[in-house]
Amino acid sequence: MTYQVIIPAAGQGKRMGAGKNKLLLELNSIPVFIHSLKVFEEDELCDGIILAIHPQDEAEFNSLLKKHGVKKVLELAPGGKERQDSIYNALKTVKTDGIILVHDAARPFILKEHIHRLLETAQETGAAIIGVPAKDTMKTVRDDVVMATVERSSLWAVQTPQAFRFSLLYRAYQQAEKDGFIGTDDSSLVERISHPVTMVEGDYDNIKLTTQEDLFFAQAILQKRQGSF
Ligand code: CTP
Ligand code: MG
């Protein structure tokens, strides 16, 4: 079974402090968002990409898509105020009722093998997300005082992609809009309409480029993958 993927790319990259959209920064001379799209471009099971971008970035993104041979972009949806708004705008353009993935343009290291594992799970259960078990001891803290130590074995760090049956995800977004709920991922919207979400174990390399030091980790991951680390 095939799928389509929504890729939100309409952020401002404030925490990166690069003076421009962090997705245009280059790794090995290729913009970050192109790395994130390439895996889907090259995945035979992906039959379309919906990219959410700011309308003022359209010309630049389009020329980079062309330059790097990305041909699967079906729609450019306008970015919104929050990530969730950008994804909702993209969801409104979807014309299929199959599996929809949502993947942050700021995560350039997702592997095809993990996408397929996620897809298979979402086909069975309707909702699946990728993540990794927490490595550090985790505590809740208030006003610099430790409140509790949370049992680590039940904690996972959540990444993207996240995969859902389109009708389920759309319903979750409609309900969130109605309730004025803003979540930090798509799964949280689906969880609150009481649909179970299955966790699929991914890998620690699937980082999101958020702050400057992530660029050093990104270089190390690239070198590791090129066998020169
Ligand atoms: N994103 C989006 N629309 C927004 C905000 C974010 O499409 N209104 C996208 C980003 O481009 C990124 C993904 O959502 O690919 C994850 O967001 P994040 O890592 O927070 O990126 P930014 O919002 O750009 O960064 P910051 O929060 O530091 O400004
Ligand atoms: Mg953000």
Write a concise synopsis of the structure shown.
This protein is α/β, with parallel strands linked by helices and 229 residues long.
Secondary structure blueprint with pairings:
Elements: E1 3-8, E2 26-27, E3 30-31, H1 32-41, E4 46-53, H2 58-67, E5 73-78, H3 83-91, E6 99-102, H4 112-125, E7 127-133, E8 138-142, E9 145-150, E10 156-165, H5 166-179, H6 186-191, E11 198-201, H7 212-225
Parallel strand pairs: 1-4, 1-6, 4-5, 7-11
Antiparallel strand pairs: 2-3, 6-10, 7-10, 8-9
Bound molecules: cytidine-5'-triphosphate and magnesium ion.
Spell out the key features of this protein.
Spore Coat Polysaccharide Biosynthesis Protein SpsA, Chain A, two-stranded antiparallel ribbon, single chain, 7 helices, alpha/beta, binds cytidine-5'-triphosphate, 7-stranded mixed beta sheet, binds magnesium ion, 26% strand, 229 residues
Query: What is the CATH level 1 assignment?
Result: Alpha Beta
Rg (C-alpha, Å):
18 Å
The domain tally reads 1
Please tally the helical runs, counting DSSP H or I stretches of 4 or more residues: 7
Secondary-structure content class: alpha/beta
Mean pLDDT equals 97
Give the CATH superfamily: Spore Coat Polysaccharide Biosynthesis Protein SpsA, Chain A
**What molecules are bound to this protein?**
cytidine-5'-triphosphate, magnesium ion
Strand content: 25-35%
Give the CATH topology: Spore Coat Polysaccharide Biosynthesis Protein SpsA, Chain A
